[in-house]
Design goal:
The chain is an alpha/beta fold. The chain folds into two domains: 126 residues, Rossmann fold, CATH 3.40.50; 109 residues, no CATH class. It is 36% helix and 21% strand. InterPro entries: 4pyrrol_syn_uPrphyn_synt_sf, 4pyrrol_synth_uPrphyn_synth.
Length: 248
């Protein structure tokens, strides 16, 4: 089935770093994508300084560290394959896990490269992740490798304008922090989620995975669609396209 003739407008709050990717996928499905980032994700001088020691391990440690860069999100994959002595770019300084085995029969040590959260509440996925590592007998050391910052009071302006017009068909969230950032900006415009839904009662909410959906629910935002494909944004776009086509 195809998207109806009247082009549905879909707003998303993804950070600018990879907003173009999501916008492109939405456009390919016949949607009118509206990018309204509620977060800024980037390295800062302090996070780069914190990260550098782990990009250039001492020579004796290199054999142990090789090929031990699992990632917590596919958007952090550009980091893969970079030589450890290079300074991280804005794309490279993303959340990842850098493990080092302490030896057979001993507890394993690792450094978790995670965000500094500014202007928002740190999502529970971060402390939960660290606790899970400890439960698996890792000794995690947190390294603040990049900064996640609220995009500011006016970041939801485009979303608010379309809600006021009753012209928003769907919202896509790719992280819990994005939801919090949107709601925080809504307050600056005298709006909340309940009012937004009353003005756009048919607006669908899609989440890129169950963790984002659960986080949104905790913040009072009911999610209609949850992507079951986490390796790219294609999953959430396909789910949204299927549902809007079904409802048309």
């Amino acid at each position: 089935m195809s998207v109806p003739t009247a082009t549905p407008t879909v707003a998303f709050t993804t950070p600018p770093n990879y907003a173009a990717r999501l916008a492109h996928l939405l456009a390919l499905k016949g949607f009118n994508p509206i990018s309204s980032p509620t977060l800024i994700v980037q390295p800062t001088p302090s996070t780069i300084s914190a990260l550098k020691p782990y990009l250039s391990p001492p020579p004796f440690a290199r054999p142990l560290l090789r090929h031990r860069l699992p990632f917590t999100h596919r958007n952090h994959l550009p980091f893969r394959g970079r030589r450890r002595h290079q300074s991280p770019s804005p794309v490279a300084a993303r959340r990842c896990i850098h493990y080092r085995r302490a030896g057979q029969g001993r507890r394993a040590h690792g450094r978790q490269l995670l965000p500094v959260v500014v202007g928002l509440v740190e999502p529970p996925v971060v402390p939960d992740f660290l606790r899970d590592l400890e439960a698996k007998r890792w000794v995690p050391v947190r390294v603040n490798a990049y900064e996640t910052r609220w995009a500011g009071p006016g970041c939801a302006k485009q979303v608010v304008e379309r809600i006021e017009e009753g012209a928003l068909d769907a919202m896509v969230f790719t992280s819990t922090a994005e939801v919090e950032g949107l709601l925080k900006s809504f307050k600056e415009f005298g709006l909340d989620w309940e009012i937004a839904k009353k003005r756009c009662p048919k607006m669908l909410v899609a989440a890129h995975g169950p963790i984002t959906a659960a986080g949104a629910h905790m913040l009072g935002v009911r999610v209609d669609l949850v992507s079951s494909q986490f390796d790219s944004f294609q999953g959430v776009v396909d789910a949204l396209h299927t549902e809007i086509s079904r409802l048309s």
